[in-house]
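Open question from group meeting: does this chain pack into something compact, or does most of it stay loose? Before anyone orders reagents, we agreed to write out a predicted structure and look at it together. Recording both the input and the output here so the notebook holds the full record.
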Amino acid sequence: MQRRALLLATPLLAAPLLRRAAAQPRWAPDRPVRIIVAFPPGGSTDVVSRLIASPLGEALGQPVVIENRGGASGMIGTEVAARAAPDGHTLLMTASGPQAINPSLFPSVPYEPVRGFAPILLVAIYPLLMVAPMDRAPRSVAEFVAQAKAQGGRLNYCSIGTGQPSHLAGELFKSMAGIEMTHVPYRGSGPAVTAVVAGECDVLFDSALSSGPQVRGGRLRALAVTTKERISSWPDLPTIAEAGLPGYDAYTWNALMAPAGTPPAAIERLNAEVGKILTSPAFRSQLEAQGAVPGGGTSAEMGRFLEAEIAKWAEVIRAGNIRPD
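Structure tokens returned:
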């Protein structure tokens, strides 16, 4: 009888608790929110941050402002964000460089890439194109690999800088293809693309945003896309994995994070609001115009993604004995 009475009473006892939980307001900022971008204005990380800022501000009921804190390969701004008050009012739009590559590339970084932050969600992935000079390029990845093996290391590949994603994508390709090539670093995407157009470099792994116009203009040949799946902006271009290197997957990315200790309610709200923005047709079309693919997912998924990226590029950096300039 007592057990039956308890079972009957349980919903009645729980109802007030559920009503109180439901009545609790969602986290909301009480002043402007700043998104720290650890790069100068105009780059892809800055652009995607500004695409998100306005609709996020409308959803939160507070202005969202962008604060560019560039320098030291993204480490200055990342450190500023890590040291900010963990109250949801300071966020970091991070990238693969400062968060997943720098911890293995440099002897030390002034922040904890994992423990120092609370992940919110993956915002965007930027596939790279494998491009080569138009006048003498092989027409496929398989032909390029065969040529590299036949020439015994005489081919080269350029990048937008030592330790940059385009460099590491080339190192990963070398390793998986079992070939040797000489790395030629340039200071930025513009000079590197120009060098390939001029025939000074045999191949370049570069963002679709910067190298794509040269491909569409007939000045470069695109051999493949570096992501494991084809992308909508280049539907006829095979992936490197399809073209003969199964498992190859390289790209850059942006993710939104907050300082460690930020309340879970704030992380949950920010994840939900930014997730809605990422699925909107207007945002998706703007992002695809930047040669990117929208992200998404949960905070936990972003955390696991970051740990996997750190481990992946740490192995490439170790195997290639890569050191910063």
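Observations to bring back to the group:
Confidence is low (pLDDT under 50) at residues 1-23.
The chain has two domains: 33-126+251-320, 127-225.
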